[in-house]
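Hi F.,

I've been meaning to write this up properly since the lab meeting, where we talked about keeping a consistent format for the predictions we share between groups. The idea is simple: the sequence comes first, exactly as it goes in, then the structure tokens exactly as they come out, then a line or two of notes. No screenshots and no reformatting. I'm using this chain as the first example so we have something concrete to point to.
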Amino acid sequence: MFSMLLALPLYASPLLPPVMDTLDKTQINWTAFRLEAKSTYTSRAQSWEYRESLASQGAGDLLKRHIIDVPLQAEKTVEDLLSNPDYIRYLQDGMHEWKTYETHYMAASNSVQVVGYINLQRYLRKVIIEHASSDISEEKGEYHTGMIIDARGLSFQPVVMPKVIDAEGIPVVDISGFSASAAQDTLPVRYVSTPADPICAKTVGKKPALMRASGVEKGSLILDASTTLPSIEDLSAIVSTGNVVIVVDSL
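Output, unedited:
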């Protein structure tokens, strides 16, 4: 498996599939890290502007309704945060900061379709910052510049703040090892469906450590027992700056 991983070039065509997860009438694009929704309004009598307005309203309503379903950690979603007075106002206000991604005018069906999204890094920035506790922000590893974890073929559910443990149950990647400084602008991990995705090379740099996950336990990825971990210094620098990519099957 590692030889196959190493043989893949770290560049990609635009046709590479993102990691997608369906949430009722919305979907999470884990590769782009956003919640997406589309809505269509059809009418022969109304103006195109009115149809676009109604389609836009529909997309926004779907995003606001389902943002609470986004999984943060194993068995924990955004909805679980809404009972916390420190988060509720912040998260409710963020629901209104969705943007239009695409607008399609379809003359044959007299329809307008609007695709909207919520940027999850921006929406959850405060939450991620408050969970991150590492004080390492810019330190570079001695050898490895990042880490690629191959989790294809496993029943792993991507989450915003995943946990990766070694074969003995010791945390390797955890939100507590991420730095609040890095959380201002980036994410704890990135998800791709293939190491050939350009996001992978951009995130892990030129000398990544390559590892294979062999199982899932209570939502946490378990690294294969044969995996050789980076040095403590490298691992701390990699995790604190979010230079981690998890390769999963396109859902």
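Notes:
The CA atoms of residues 5 and 195 lie 7 Å apart.
The radius of gyration is 20 Å.

If this format works for you, I'll send the rest the same way.

G.
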